């Protein structure tokens, strides 16, 4: 028993001495292969079956319904303008994944184009979806699922929950044509990092060449060129193995992100400070008005008057001095700023002043 405990203790100590690769990421999480991406599709359609919440005065809907009726062999008499409160014009959007084949199904989103109040309970009539080249890649149709709810009364009062003018149709479109990726024709394939960094690109190259010697080379700070073997089966096996290789990304650049609209400040762990001392105080000015009504003596033929009484008070909050040692870590920065007791807006001013003084070694990004 004692021997087992001793072994466990020695094993734990040994594991503590082994450097943990805690920040290693899979190559597939650092970027994507060039050309193997989704393509955006869009289209125009008509949603029918609404309960009086459609576009009754939108001419687009009337013309579209004439076209739908014509395809079904029904011609509206000349001069007849139907009142279509149960139909709505919608814009259809979808993403066509890479390697999509005819017959596969994709999800679509429908959004009202005109003044329709809700798409709840509606059904999308068959509509084509176009790519950026103007060609048809999918056909959409199905019942619209709406997560929002809107209710209105006769007096004009309205209550709405979420958005009822946007809906979604799961598997609502059928792929009619795929997009060529060049995967089976090109001799090389590029892997593009999500964020440009020469060190990360070099580490990805070394990881790939460790498994397939001479396959990868760095093209620039974003791209790594891969000389893939010919044959789809060999290429697929090589890419599947490359995607799962662990790579430790380069340390992030020191940045301070400031959201000027919400006052949010984010400081990453790479931020370091030069030695600096900061004193921050607040000046509060308070003005109190206490007017007094003065009444004249009885039978004095006087007039009621108001005597102004203004009191001005100036208070200066206690100012504390926080000392930032050189190369302070993120924890030390947060502790020192908490000691000052500053709010978000004051924190922005302090960080900008430290940047001007040369004490903040980071890039400030205002969004």
From TrEMBL:
<keyword id="KW-0969">Cilium</keyword>
<dbReference type="GO" id="GO:0030288">
    <property type="term" value="C:outer membrane-bounded periplasmic space"/>
</dbReference>
<dbReference type="GO" id="GO:0005198">
    <property type="term" value="F:structural molecule activity"/>
</dbReference>
<dbReference type="Pfam" id="PF02119">
    <property type="entry name" value="FlgI"/>
</dbReference>
<comment type="similarity">
    <text>Belongs to the FlgI family.</text>
</comment>
<feature type="signal peptide">
    <location>
        <begin position="1"/>
        <end position="24"/>
    </location>
</feature>
<keyword id="KW-0282">Flagellum</keyword>
<dbReference type="InterPro" id="IPR001782">
    <property type="entry name" value="Flag_FlgI"/>
</dbReference>
<protein>
    <recommendedName>
        <fullName>Flagellar P-ring protein</fullName>
    </recommendedName>
</protein>
<keyword id="KW-0966">Cell projection</keyword>
<keyword id="KW-0732">Signal</keyword>
<dbReference type="GO" id="GO:0071973">
    <property type="term" value="P:bacterial-type flagellum-dependent cell motility"/>
</dbReference>
<comment type="subunit">
    <text>The basal body constitutes a major portion of the flagellar organelle and consists of four rings (L,P,S, and M) mounted on a central rod.</text>
</comment>
<keyword id="KW-0975">Bacterial flagellum</keyword>
<keyword id="KW-0574">Periplasm</keyword>
<comment type="function">
    <text>Assembles around the rod to form the L-ring and probably protects the motor/basal body from shearing forces during rotation.</text>
</comment>
<dbReference type="GO" id="GO:0009428">
    <property type="term" value="C:bacterial-type flagellum basal body, distal rod, P ring"/>
</dbReference>
